[in-house]
Structures are given as structure tokens and as C-alpha cells.
Amino acid sequence: MTTPVALTIAGSDSSGGAGIQADLKTFAAFGVYGASAITALTAQNTRGVTGIHAVPADFVTAQIDAAFSDLDVGAVKIGMVAQVASIDAIASALSRWKPRHVVLDPVMVATSGDRLLAAEAVVALRTKLMPLASVITPNLPEAAALLDEPIARSETEIESQGRRLLEFGCRAVLIKGGHGEGAESTDYLVSPSTTIALAAPRVATRNTHGTGCSLSSAVAAGLAKGEDLETAVRSAKSWISAAIAAADRFSVGHGHGPIHHFHRFY
């Protein structure tokens, strides 16, 4: 029996709620073995980000090569990339190793509102990483930022932005509705042939640290296990909704606390 393996290429969160720490917890929650390549160290907690230390691009490459040369990586999740040199290194490595699935979470702003990606890196993300992605998972502000447009306010506008994002070369777009309003939080999975709306009750909690990282990792976990994209996305949406609903079981930090990755177990 083969063990499904997923690799996260992302930044580290010293408070453990987001970044590679959230990704590895998510992979574990789905029964997937997690490996990691760290692109940046962040000094952060539930209140905000106080420092970012980028990992040199050649060492990002070394980590990715070490993982792929030994492990049967079924899916890759890309999170915070921090700088253009890292994006170039990741794009080059993935072009060499050709993983079956790539989930790109275009992390630009932390839950606390701190900006994590420089403007020139956004251009590199669009032109170098998006064409490699099986699916990208922007939230509403990130989708707008990728297109240099205002934030979408209606289902029609969201679908329209999703279709324009496809033009950058990714095979599908999952626009997350957590930043929207109303009783339901609706995500939209847009592919060349269809748009699927995935709704869940909006949970009233401030403990949402790492939500975006964890959802994209949950999708990657499903793909690593051999699920098709729609199945992986539906499973991830159901799991993240329950993880947010269970977040208040924790009392961690004094700002936006983490979600409960292991709500199924305790």
C-alpha cells in the first residue's frame, strides 16, 4: 500500500496557526504524509506579523529537490513565496520534477492585514507559477489583486474574475468567499467548462488564523490521495467549515486564533 505524500512550499508561522505548520497539520488530518520546503521564516502570532526573513532561493531549490528525489510526491501546495527569486526557483524546480498536481494559494495578505507579497512578486506569480497550477485558491481580495480590479461583489462578478484568472494558464480557480457577507460563505470552483458554487453557513468567530492555508492544503491532500478536483474541493470545504466551527474550543493567543485542524479527533 502506497502512502500518499504531499509537499508544501510555503512560509513558516512561528505561532503555528498558518503557513507550513497549518499545512502539515492539514495533511495529517487527511491521512496524508506531509513534507515541506520553507520559503521564508516569519515572526508572527495571532495579532500580526512582526518580521519576515526570506530563505535564499538556492536553498528553496535544495529543499524541493531533496523531497522529490526521495519521496513520491502526489501533490504540491504552494503558499507564501515572499520574493521573485523564490518564485523563479519554485517554477524551475516544478518544471523539472513535473508533479501531478499543484495547488497554488496566492498568499498576499495575512489574516491580521499584514502584506506578505511585494508588488513585483505578484507579476512573477501570475506569469511563472499560475501556468503550472492545477488550481489556484485566491480569496476575494486576492482574486481582485491578481487582476488589478475592484473586489467582486456578486456571483456574476466572482465568476467573471474566475474566468479571467483562467487566462493566466491555471486549469481551475477556487475563489474563496470567506471575505464576503451574508449568512453563507460560498466558494466558487471555476473551470473552463463549468462553475460550481459551494456554500456553507458562515461561522461567527474571530479564530480564523490559517484558514486559507489550510483549505488549499486540504485540496492538495485530496489530490495526493487520487481524488478528482471537484471531490477534493468538496471534501476540503466540508472539513474547513467544521474546523472553523470548532475553533472556539481552543483558547490560543489574543488576536485571530487558529482553526481546529483535528476537530475529527478531539
What can you see in these coordinates?
The chain has 266 residues and is an alpha/beta fold. The chain has one domain (5-249): UDP-N-acetylmuramoyl-L-alanine:D-glutamate ligase (3-Layer(aba) Sandwich). The protein contains eight helices and nine strands. The protein has helices spanning 19-29, 57-70, 84-97, 119-129, 140-147, 155-166, 211-224, 229-245, and strands at 5-13, 33-45, 48-54, 75-78, 102-104, 135-136, 173-175, 184-190, 195-201. It has a six-stranded mixed sheet. The chain has a three-stranded antiparallel sheet with strand order 7-8-9. Helix 3 packs parallel to helix 4 and helix 5 (140-147) packs across helix 6 (155-166). The longest helix has 17 residues, at 229-245. The model has no long low-confidence stretch (mean pLDDT 92).
The gist of it:
The chain is an alpha/beta fold and 266 residues long. The chain has helices at 19-29, 57-70, 84-97, 119-129, 140-147, 155-166, 211-224, 229-245, and strands at residues 5-13, 33-45, 48-54, 75-78, 102-104, 135-136, 173-175, 184-190, 195-201.
Write the layout of secondary structure elements.
Elements: E1 5-13, H1 19-29, E2 33-45, E3 48-54, H2 57-70, E4 75-78, H3 84-97, E5 102-104, H4 119-129, E6 135-136, H5 140-147, H6 155-166, E7 173-175, E8 184-190, E9 195-201, H7 211-224, H8 229-245
Parallel strand pairs: 1-2, 1-4, 4-5, 5-6
Antiparallel strand pairs: 2-3, 7-8, 8-9
